[in-house]
Predict the 3D structure of the following.
Amino acid sequence: MSSPRFLLGFLLFIACLLNLISVNSDGKQTALFVFGDSVYDPGNNNYLNISIQDKAVYWPYGETFFGFPTGRFCDGRIIPDFIAMDAKLPLWKPYLEPGSQQFTNGANFAASGAGVLPETNPGLINLRLQLSFFKKVASQLRQELGEEEGKKMLMEAVYLFSIGGNDITYFAGNYPNATESEQEQFLQVVIGNLTEVIKEIYEMGGRKLAFQNVGPMGCLPLAKQVNGISGDECVESLSEMARQLNNALLKAAQVLENQLEGFKYSVFDYYTSLYDIIKNPSKYGFQVADVACCGYGSNNASHCGIEPYYVCNNPSEYVFFDGAHPCESANILFAELLWNGEPEITKPYNMKQLFELDSDYPSGTLYSIMNRGQTGGSLINFPTL
Ligand SMILES: *[C@@H]1O[C@H](CO)[C@@H](O)[C@H](O)[C@H]1NC(C)=O
Ligand SMILES: *[C@@H]1O[C@H](CO)[C@@H](O)[C@H](O)[C@H]1NC(C)=O
Ligand SMILES: *[C@@H]1O[C@H](CO)[C@@H](O)[C@H](O)[C@H]1NC(C)=O
Ligand SMILES: *[C@@H]1O[C@H](CO)[C@@H](O)[C@H](O)[C@H]1NC(C)=O
């Protein structure tokens, strides 16, 4: 057990005990709606008739925390699980899990393989489809709570996204000879479609939106393995595309803030934080960053759980559990930065601050603005990434 991470876990535990419950001005719990891909999927793909490779429904997925596979592409919990804990919300049930569900705490629509664009992995649950699920939930809530209360609840809620990585994989795979301007055009199409979805959520009441940007895709063990790269090197073209998408996302969020009254956002720089962990694993208590804990091939990076494959003895020594997804021990670090990070890494608000913002106030008079600094991360001092 690495002592820095153990200490962090302990501090997180204390932080949870001390944390104020995130409630609205009228005492109701603030809901969280989650959209995205495998980084955030709590098991929605389990309920699709798709290839086993797109569902993490087999051992050793889930081995560290749940003791059985849940559909999460991880040995344990994923980032939205920790965010739900921070926000005092229950553990995610996949939205698609059969049976009647209460959505007063929100819902998680994220689905592995999802892209912003429908042409990315057709047959999986792209962002538009996730939006259509949200619309159903929103109308159910307005019926249950009444039009007024329902709208208020949707306005107070926080909306969290992790999407775009699969669109990059799709483009790089299908257009290997694309020119720079074709690539730029494609990224504009991705951001254009994402912006449309954001605007629809805003029209339905959404005011507080959080985004985890796309990671350094060329440094994922699977990307290295597919491209025959080992050690420290990364597939620069993929990472470059991720950086361009992330820049465009930040710009789009800033534009939306100016266009839409009361729109508040948070962007967590997952790219930078994951990249720093990959480059300096020992700084964070990890030993291996270029090879996955579970899988097969030159970087043990493909088909974790499908024979033949290897699995490591101690996932917490590895940054990556499978070829594309971090271990739970890394997800703890990311969730802390998303929830409570300093503005260098999560800006302009972190998620804790978004939860505390009161959407009922006209923009500019949000009480929590005055509390910034006091509410942001004084308990845990994170190394600057
Ligand atoms: C699931 O997909 C397979 C292959 O596409 C198909 O043969 C089968 O009928 C489908 N099952 C259901 C329940 O839709
Ligand atoms: C990309 O270019 C290479 C040679 O430069 C060529 O062999 C290949 O067929 C091209 N791929 C596509 C999808 O056009
Ligand atoms: C959305 O994506 C489609 C391709 O799926 C594209 O034709 C369209 O122009 C995009 N919309 C925007 C606003 O960029
Ligand atoms: C893959 O995993 C096996 C079993 O843990 C290990 O022996 C092997 O060294 C790993 N491959 C690499 C490239 O580290």
In short: Residues 291, 299-300, 310, 312 surround 2-acetamido-2-deoxy-beta-D-glucopyranose (ligand 4) (CB under 6 Å). Confidence is low (pLDDT under 50) at residues 11-21, 361-385.
